[in-house]
Design brief:
Elements lengths: L1 E3 L1 H14 L4 H16 L10 H10 L9 E6 L2 E5 L5 H19 L1 E10 L5 H9 L3 E6 L20 E5 L6 E5 L6 H9 L9 E2 L5 E2 L2 H7 L8 H18 L4 H6 L4 E10 L7 H12 L15 H13 L1 E3 L1 H9 L1
Parallel strand pairs: 3-4
Antiparallel strand pairs: 1-11, 2-3, 4-10, 5-6, 5-10, 6-7, 8-9
Helix pairs in contact: 1-2, 4-5, 6-7
Amino acid sequence: MTKVPYTELFKQFERVLLSLAFDPIKAKSIAEIFTSNSLDGVYSHGLNRFPVFVDYVKKGWVDKNAEPKLIKSFGVIEQWDGQLGPGMLNAKVCMQRAIELAKKNGMGCVALKRTNHWMRGGAYGWQAAEAGCIGINFTNTIAIMPPWGAKAPAVGNNPLIIAVPRKEGHIVLDMALSQYSYGKMQEAELRHQELGFYGGYDQNGNLSKDPVAIRITKRTLPVGMWKGSGLAIMLDLLVSILSDGQTTGEITSSKSETNISQVFICIDPNLNSNYEDIANKILDYTKGVQPIEGEAIYYPGEKTLQTRRQNQKEGIPVDEIMWKKLLAL
């Protein structure tokens, strides 16, 4: 690993995007999102994912000129069409619209169809929290996880994000519904490391900590076993129904993770004036118990904030192979 300043990583992302004929404003926004993902320690959807995004643009799966548009409105609920534009820009626009609806009505929900991978779903939870809103967002994906009791993938790992704003540090849960996301397994693979816990099954049907073996079989463990499998199915139902977009099965049949569906929900927490006191009370209670020796208790998003501050100070760690790939683009 080597360390690169934020400005240098951003500059390289922006250079490549401009070479692909992206509008300069869009290039800047996309570069900021990829750089911020790496800054926060989500390297799997920062630098490590960028070459895949470039490949999707070159294949025409991502329309760099497309803009999301409103299709239908039902009071505080809106349906939008991403028109296969850059997923992270579509997500940013739709979360901003959900924020506007929440500020006006107390709550807002934007359901988005025909979009692309949003990279780090947590980025839009942070966006909501920075605007002073509770944020809930989720997406379906291509089938990369078996339903509980099956050998073959038939559900997505459908990330779920829940964010609560807080002056002392926003609380942001960002979780795929597999025990380890494919991005986290890629990180472990690049570092030649095993996973800390069993993450799925190998080709012999044995539980494994080997990220390479699990990525080959696509037999990832759902979080909470049958409970995570059930939650993944329910999120696919919700996102597909609310957006009138494609399901995991339909996405999978196309052989590429594009034309996916997403939901962005915002709630104005000021309906309860002491919501931060409630949040602090819960965190104080949770962190007040004795940790296991050698461990620490963190609230969701706390380690992200620590990593952000460290990387701002010391530079962003980048895998040397992926850094060279970026420089060669």
